[in-house]
Write a structure and sequence with these properties.
The radius of gyration is 20 Å and the shape is globular. The strands form 2 sheets. A two-stranded antiparallel sheet has the order 1-2. The protein has a two-stranded parallel sheet with strand order 3-4. Helix 4 crosses helix 7 and helix 7 runs parallel beside helix 8. Helices cover 43% and strands 11% of the residues. The model has no long low-confidence stretch (mean pLDDT 88).
């Protein structure tokens, strides 16, 4: 009797081995992950993502271990998408202010910074979590947001976006 393997591993023959391409360097310049992490750590309520051990699944498929990130409690939004949206807003604000380095979250949310920026409105198109994250981040920084959704977006997702200030 043949034992069936629970997983069949396949090589992705379309993967681009050029990880140090000009496009990658442009999109992900050296130090960008450190800067993002330093920014996110300053957001009130931010915590490192806990890792959950899926030891039974790992044992079942013959691996030494499987760990997954549990984003269910991420800043009360249940999604990592708030991190990208908040960092994009932060980078835009730095650019708008002409700041070459970084700002602390305290500086970013100060009345002086808010007065320099005026009334900004951030916009995003989404099917749910990304837009909710952008709306949340804009509201945390004292700005408005407009989130565009397609006509098949569920009312629950639209309500969640609205509850976060869009």
């Amino acid at each position: 009797m043949e034992t069936k393997q629970p997983i069949e591993w396949l090589e992705n023959k379309h993967a681009d081995p050029a990880v140090n391409s000009a496009a990658v360097q442009n999109l992900f310049p050296a130090g960008i992950s450190r800067r993002a992490r330093e920014f996110h750590r300053q957001i009130p309520g931010y915590n490192m993502t806990p890792l959950k051990n899926l030891y039974r699944l790992a044992d079942m498929i013959g691996l030494g271990g499987i760990w997954v990130k549990d984003e269910s409690m991420r800043l009360s939004l249940g999604s990592f998408k708030v991190l990208g949206g908040s960092f994009a807003i932060y980078r835009y604000i730095l650019s708008r202010l002409g700041v070459q380095g970084d700002m602390t979250y305290e500086e970013l949310t100060s009345p002086a910074t808010r007065a320099k920026l005026g009334d900004l409105v951030f916009a995003a198109a989404t099917d749910g979590n990304h837009g909710r994250g952008v709306a949340w981040a804009a509201r945390q920084l004292g700005f408005k947001s407009i989130i565009y959704v397609h006509k098949f977006t569920s009312e629950a997702r639209i309500s969640a976006i609205e509850r976060n200030g869009a």
